[in-house]
Amino acid sequence: MIVYLVGMPGAGKTSCGMVWARQLGYKFYDMDVFIESLHGQSIPALFESAGESRFREIEKETLRLISQGNKRIIATGGGTPCFFDNMAFMKAHGLVIFLDCPVDTLIQRLHGSQEQRPLLQHCRNEEEIRKFVQELYEQRRPFYEQAHISLQNYEPQSLPQALVSAIQHT
């Protein structure tokens, strides 16, 4: 089985995915890290040099590439489910889990990381981050809510029972 983690930047997709993969004996893939290694550029540099539309195409290609195999957890980019047919693809090829993190928590986690996150680079302070994150969350939520499972209270250290049950029933 392939498990796709979707959610906003800062929701904990990478942190949870790494730990949960280890607990399940699965391989872990972070799409952003994978893209950076394939293209030899950081996500912000690739975003700037290629533009957002080309970056989204690269993201789609990468999603299909790392979905070849089994027993893997894939932490997607925050925008991955929102472009092309990526959400339908993930739902057809595995279990999609939405890590639904409160906006206030996202803002705390994202504050100070604007340089590493291309969409946040224009934000100069916490107020601008809050406004941008809230708007982005509202735009992306309809895509995220298409996931098979939505988790609101989750910790990297404890494997969610919903995930264990879903894996056992496949």
From TrEMBL:
Transmembrane segments: none annotated. It holds the Pfam family SKI. InterPro entries: P-loop_NTPase, Shikimate/glucono_kinase, Shikimate_kinase/TSH1. Mg(2+) binds at residue 14. Pathway: Metabolic intermediate biosynthesis; chorismate biosynthesis; chorismate from D-erythrose 4-phosphate and phosphoenolpyruvate: step 5/7. Binds 1 Mg(2+) ion per subunit. Coiled coil: none annotated. Its cofactor is Mg(2+). Belongs to the shikimate kinase family. This is Shikimate kinase. The gene is aroK.
